Amino acid sequence: MKIVDMDSVSISYNGETALDNISLEIDAGERIVILGPSGCGKTTILRLVAGFIAPDTGSISIAGEPVSRNRHIIKPPEQRGLGMVFQDLALWPHLSVTGNIEFGLKAKGFPKVERKRRIRRILNLVGMDGYAKRKPAELSGGQQQRVALARALAPEPKVLLMDEPLSSLDLELNVRLRKEILRLQEKLGFGLLYVTHDRDEAFDIASRVVFMKRGRIDDVRSIAFSRDKKG
């Protein structure tokens, strides 16, 4: 089943083409990694799928329902059933770990009992049970990443969008969290749309790698083929 379907999507900024006729499908449970240099259009794809911007032309559907088409947002971000982890994590510094996770659940209208259940479950899944009352400043970089993941996954999204979430971490922690993302994806079954400029990171995470160049899809490879070609 197609969870995300981008059909002939193009968008320009100030007369400059950011994406040119992009078509991309994500199946349920699939891990798509978009790989390419800065300015190639990777993050623009995430922003379009998330609903922060609309395509100039083309359409986007999620779980078979149109969400954007031809400069029109049909469904806003909060109605798309998506989770997102930003590059800067965007944790609320004045809220505890619980408060950060609960904030999004409140916004989506979950009742108090259900919020508590989901927070307990997701903190257990990301290994942060004992940190519920701590503030982000009291956590390590890796722990903050886990909180951002927990916040995005607590509403049980169909697709998790990740925008270079590990780029600020040292290599050892980066590799450890790649494995954590894979473990959570296998456990919870969400689709993954992940952006990076790091080739090794892409091949470790993806079931399919989409190579971007100057606003276009340059190549698409399955991970089985790609691993043989890492060189």
Entry summary:
This protein is of the alpha/beta class. The chain has helices at 42-50, 97-107, 112-125, 141-153, 171-188, 199-205, 223-228; strands at 2-13, 16-27, 31-35, 57-62, 65-69, 72-73, 82-85, 159-163, 191-196, 208-213, 216-222.
Protein architecture, described:
The chain has seven helices and eleven strands. The protein has helices at 42-50, 97-107, 112-125, 141-153, 171-188, 199-205, 223-228, and strands spanning 2-13, 16-27, 31-35, 57-62, 65-69, 72-73, 82-85, 159-163, 191-196, 208-213, 216-222. A six-stranded mixed sheet has the order 7-8-9-3-10-11, with helices on both faces. It has a five-stranded antiparallel sheet with strand order 2-1-4-5-6, covered by helices on one side. α2 (97-107) packs parallel to α4 and α4 (141-153) runs parallel beside α5.
Set down the secondary structure blueprint.
Layout: E1 2-13, E2 16-27, E3 31-35, H1 42-50, E4 57-62, E5 65-69, E6 72-73, E7 82-85, H2 97-107, H3 112-125, H4 141-153, E8 159-163, H5 171-188, E9 191-196, H6 199-205, E10 208-213, E11 216-222, H7 223-228
Parallel strand pairs: 3-9, 3-10, 7-8, 8-9
Antiparallel strand pairs: 1-2, 1-4, 4-5, 5-6, 10-11
Helix pairs in contact: 2-3, 2-4, 3-4, 4-5
